[in-house]
Every structure is written in C-alpha cells, then in structure tokens.
Design brief:
Strand content: 15-25%
Radius of gyration: 20 Å
Distance between the termini: 28 Å
CATH topology of the largest domain: Dihydrodipicolinate Reductase, domain 2
Order of helices and strands: EHEHEHEHEHEHEHEEEEEEEHHHE
CATH architecture of the largest domain: 2-Layer Sandwich
Bound molecules: NADP nicotinamide-adenine-dinucleotide phosphate
Largest sheet: 7 strands, mixed
Structural class: alpha/beta
Shape: globular
Strand order of the largest sheet: 12-11-7-10-9-8-15
CATH class of the largest domain: Alpha Beta
Length: 336
C-alpha cells in the first residue's frame, strides 16, 4: 500500500508531541512535512525527523507531496487551514478549537456538506481515554438507568500569568462540553456560569474557579467545576448519578507511600500525564482513518457545538444568567 504522507502546520508543544507519537510507530502513514510561522521551530522539528519544511501552511496544503494535513498551530489560524485542506480534498486533523467562532465552525461544516463527505477530526482527545471509554460502556449498558445528574471537575495545578477567566471556559471547560455530549449522546440546551469567590492562587482580575451548570435536552443537569489554580495537582473527575446507580470515572492509580503516621498518593501535575494514552490513541485513530478513507472521530459538527456552547458560557460569564444555546440541527452527514 502506498504510504500516506502527512504535513503538520504548527510545530509548537502539541504539534511536536503528535509528530513524535506518529514517528515512533512503524506505519503506512508517515509525517513528511512541516510548516510553522516560526521558521526556526519548523526547522528544528524537521531536523529531528528528516522532514521537508514549507514556508507557509498554504504551500504545504497545496503540495502534491502531502496527502493529509494536521493543524496544530494557534487556534485563530485553524479555520483558514482546515477550509483549504477540504478545498484540496485532503483529510485534516485539527486541534481544538476547530475555529474560534461558531460562524467559522459553521463554514467548515458547510464545506463538508457541499463536498458530501467528512474530512475533519477535531482534537477532543478525552474520547480516546480508556477510563472515559469504560465509563461510557457502563452508561450505554443502562445498568445505571436514566442519567439524572453529572458532577464534573477539571482542576489544573497552575497556569501562566496571562491565563484569563475566558480561557478557563475556552481551554478547560470546552473539554467537559465535549465529553458530556459524547458520554450522554445529548445536546446542551442551556448554560449558566457562576463565579465563586476567587482563590488566592488565581491570576489578577480572574475568577478561578468557575462553576458551570449545563442543562441537557433530556433534563439532565451537569455541574462543572473548572479551576485553573487548583494548587495540589492535575485532576479530572466525573460522577454520573443514574436512577439505579452512581457511576464514577476511574482515577489513575497513583503511587502510594505509607510513611510514619501518613499515607501519600502522588497525583499527576499536568494534563499531559493524565491523558498521555488518550493523545496516543487519538492520533493513531486518525492515522487508521486515513487508511480506511473515512474520518470517524470527533467531527466538525462536534467542533461547531463546542463553539456554540463556549460562546454561551462566555456570555453567561460576562453578562450573567442562564443562556440558551441557539444551534443548527445536526445534518445527516454528521449522524454517527
Ligand atoms: P504553541 O506551543 O504556541 O505552538 C503553536 C505554534 O503555531 C507556534 O510555533 C506558533 O508560532 C505557530 N503558529 C502561530 N501562527 C501560525 C500560523 N499562522 N501558521 C503556522 N504556524 C503558526 O501552542 P500549543 O500548545 O502547541 O497549541 C497549539 C494548538 O493545540 C492550540 O489550538 C491549542 O488549543 C491546542 N492544544 C490542545 C490540547 C488538547 O488537550 N487537545 C492541548 C494543548 C494544546 P509562534 O510561537 O511564533 O507564534
């Protein structure tokens, strides 16, 4: 079988991590090209893996030596690159966000509808986390009965000084938005963001943590604590209250130390440790989809819904109150 050649646009933290994961596997897909606005970063990555550097993302996408594209540059640049990849009939993996506006996401959904084909996998890696997959299996088995409530927490140990309350929504809560939709198969109809008093570890003029309440279309209520300055370590929790049972997301098995009069468990300090396996399986699943010629991971409608819900959360954060998510119906192409 002819090798499928992948070009990465964006060779920062995320791009390099995913390139490494693909490069370490003997496979029918091969990363062969990179581009980054930061030419030095692109060249460093190219030197590590023997790749060709393109001066611009546009040239990389148009190249006849590139069969599929991965977009791991900054969020604001995703929309243009993804639309170009679709116009060139090339499958595309796009890190979240799919686009920074719902209108931008809608353009991508429409481009796929016009082509009559799905091209895009969005980087919602939690769907590939085996613990979330185990939780979903139990929920799908109906052993717990109908879901009534979900309690979610997303706790980052610490963040940089420029991290804002908006980023708690767009970078942290967005993962809960996606995973709740995936776990339940239900859409989020309304959201409200509350601002508890801010932690002493919060950045200036920010609210860490934020507390979100999501109402799903079947009446399930989900609460989400998103804390960018949890201080103790990195942790993601999810407890699902069903009619017949309470089901919890398994945690990592931390190393436990029993010493004199104490017992200590070592938690991950970063999301990269917690979701290492998920990032690996996510990008390998995309590689597999290239072989099958059919994208079946999180798609551009999921990217669009994430944008609709984060917009509503941001509106609630700034203006207060309960905000309805005003959205398009899921087109047939995106029914799984
Ligand atoms: P990063 O380390 O800053 O890397 C981004 C790279 O893109 C930088 O080298 C940047 O260059 C380059 N870039 C900026 N504008 C560009 C353009 N127009 N064309 C080509 N390259 C451009 O950021 P990151 O942490 O890797 O994040 C990249 C994306 O991944 C973001 O969308 C982020 O939200 C996402 N992400 C997702 C997860 C997840 O859990 N799914 C985790 C981390 C990141 P300069 O430095 O010169 O600007």
């Amino acid at each position: 079988m002819k090798c499928i050649r992948i070009g990465f646009i964006g060779t920062g933290f995320q791009g390099r991590d995913l390139i490494r994961r693909l490069a370490e596997k003997e496979s029918y897909v091969k990363v062969t090209a990179v581009s980054d606005i930061n030419r030095e970063s692109a060249q460093e990555t190219a030197d590590l893996y023997g790749l060709k550097v393109y001066a611009t993302g546009q040239e990389l996408i148009a190249s006849q030596e590139v069969d599929a594209v991965a977009v791991t540059s900054w969020g604001e640049t995703h929309e243009e690159y993804v639309l170009q990849a679709i116009a060139h009939n090339k499958p595309v993996f796009c890190e979240k966000p799919l686009a920074t506006t719902r209108e931008g996401c809608m353009k991508i959904v429409k481009a796929e509808l016009d082509a009559g084909k799905k091209y895009v996998q969005v980087g919602f890696m939690r769907r590939f986390d085996r613990r979330y997959q185990d939780l979903k299996k139990v929920l799908d088995s109906k052993e717990a009965g109908n879901i009534l409530l979900m309690h979610c927490a997303h706790r980052n140990k610490e963040v940089g000084a420029t991290y804002t309350s908006d980023m708690v929504v767009t970078d942290m809560m967005v993962h809960e938005i996606d995973i709740v939709r995936w776990l339940t198969g239900k859409e989020i109809m309304a959201v409200q963001i509350l601002k508890p008093k801010s932690s002493i570890h919060a950045n200036q003029n920010t609210n860490f943590p934020l507390y979100g309440i999501f109402e799903l279309e079947d009446g399930t209520i989900v609460d989400v604590e998103a804390n960018a300055a949890a201080y103790f370590g990195y942790e993601v929790t999810c407890e699902v209250v069903g009619e017949n049972a309470v089901v919890s997301l398994p945690q990592m098995n931390p190393v436990t130390v029993k010493a004199k009069n104490k017992k200590e468990e070592f938690l991950p300090s970063l999301w990269t440790e917690r979701f290492d396996q998920a990032y690996e399986d996510e990008i390998l699943a995309w590689a597999e989809s290239l072989k099958k010629g059919k994208a079946d991971g999180p798609d551009s409608f999921d990217g669009y819904m994430a944008a609709v819900c984060t917009d509503a959360c941001l509106q609630s954060l700034h203006e207060g109150g309960r905000i309805l998510t005003d959205k398009m119906e899921r087109p047939n192409l995106f029914i799984k």
